[in-house]
Amino acid sequence: MPSNTIDADGTITRDARSRYRQRAEGGAHGAFEAETKRAGGSPRAEIEVVRGPAPAEIAAVLGGESEVVIRQRRMFDGDRLVQLCNTYIPAFVAEAAPAVAQLDTGVGGIISRMADAGLAQTEVVEDVRQEPATADQASALGVEPGSLLLTITHVGSTEDGRTVEVSKHILGPGWTLRYGVPLD
Predict the structure, then answer these.
(1) pLDDT by residue (tens digit) across 106-145?
(2) Cα-based distances in Å from 137 to 70, 75, 99
(3) Cβ distance 147 to 140 under 8 Å?
(4) Mean pLDDT of 61-83
(5) Alpha carbon 111 to chain centroid, angstroms
(6) Which residues, including other chains, have CB under 8 Å from residue 61's CB and lie 6 or more apart?
(7) pTM for the complete prediction?
(8) Which distant-in-sequence residues (6+ apart) come within 8 Å of 1 by Cβ?
(9) Handedness of CA 7, 10, 12, 13 (dihedral sign)
(10) 111: β partners
(11) How far apart are the first and last CA of the chain?
């Protein structure tokens, strides 16, 4: 099965073909932990959970939902910060699956807690862009302000089309993104 790798030079190849299906592998608390361990790394995350308004562009994706649970994460391989990620979860999801607002969301992470509550993600759309680093992002990731960083905006939806998660990943230097598309 496709898997992430971490090369000797620290380059991380994120293989999206299997990352969400393997999110609980080995007792992992989400895809980042599972894939980093599988690649031989040492994953850890600093997490803060708050409730507040979603930024305008996120609220638009959430259909105008303004008050959300925000999971702010700094994600590391060992001592190296490799990405920043803010996840925005609509209030109706947090009410149905209260564990998504906890620091420790359990084996499989928030996607598994949503599924447990009947809000399984059946479609994920990820937009990958280059965006200039803000001063805070640059300071955290060790780049110059304005440096172009890869970002992934992940939108998870249920079978009936409800958006249950929007995550904005900001990747530090040294990432390769791999996607596969089945051809019928």
Answers:
(1) 877 888 899 999 999 999 899 999 999 999 999 999 999 9
(2) 17, 13, 28
(3) no
(4) 92
(5) 10
(6) 155, 163, 166
(7) 0.86
(8) 18, 22
(9) negative
(10) none
(11) 19
